[in-house]
Amino acid sequence: MPYVTVGQENSATIDIYYEDLGAGQPIVLIHGFPLNSHSWEKQVLMLLNAGYRVITYDRRGFGASSQPSLGYDYDTFAADLNTLMTKLDLHNAVLVGFSMGTGEVTRYLGNYGSKRVQKAVLMAPVPPFLLKTADNPEGVDQSVFDGIMKAIVKDRPAYFSEFFREFFNVDVLLGERISNYAIQACWNVAAGASAKGTLDCVPSWLTDFRDDLPRIGIPTLIIHGDADRILPLGSTAARLPKLIKNSQLEIIPGGPHAINWTHADQVNPMLLDFLQQK
Questions:
Q1: Where does the AB hydrolase-1 domain start and stop, copy by copy (predicted)?
Q2: CATH 3.40.30.10, applies to 3-276
Q3: Out of 65, 224, 228, 235, which one is annotated catalytic?
Q4: Active site residue 99
Q5: What is the pLDDT of residues 90-145, one digit of tens each?
Q6: Catalytic residue among 37, 66, 99, 247
Q7: Active-site residue 114, yes or no?
Q8: Cα torsion at 109, 88, 42, 245 (round to 10°)?
């Protein structure tokens, strides 16, 4: 199993697990909370069949990567991504983030630029800034995030059960676009994640990306479901076209948060078309 070392905590290295498949232009897929890189399976198969090199990795604290007690902030997440990009010596790459992974894409481009990157995709994005403040009235109240942290501390497995109901809009899409088996598989991955990392990720969602976004000069595709209950469209993706110069927004009607799974039949053609644009 391939790993790249990104740090050290006491006697142990902090290692990021990755997979590097296929040949062609490199596409780097960055997963969402609280899952791992295998949550991209519907995109990985499509991209490999289309002739791309597909790189996926597990965020620190999740999947097969190390579970340290530190580093759950976007500067560190972006540094982890930069270490992987440098180790693999990627050029002309496309960064594709889903949900929490869109923060890595945004902060990476803000901190490290686009020397290695040709295009970006933000799917169900966190940016620009989730927290409601005086200068960000479109954001979400702090009390919502306080409640999430309280629920994680009280009973993390129970929190995940409720989270995935809203993640997939189970009351609407169960049996049509999502199965109980897929939900259980996601729960299993989430339950195996770092308890400390799970908790510490919540404050990271409140990162202010508004200074990073104007630095993104490469073509950027934004995809969001208009029925997203986790990251509401109006607080996130709908605001981005004005903040990212060379961007386009595609909205999935009836799409929940997990559009890369439930609506892969619509997301994948959008993604492939964007990749093939000159």
A1: 26-264
A2: no
A3: 228
A4: yes
A5: 999 999 999 999 999 999 999 999 999 999 999 999 999 999 999 999 999 999 99
A6: 99
A7: no
A8: 20
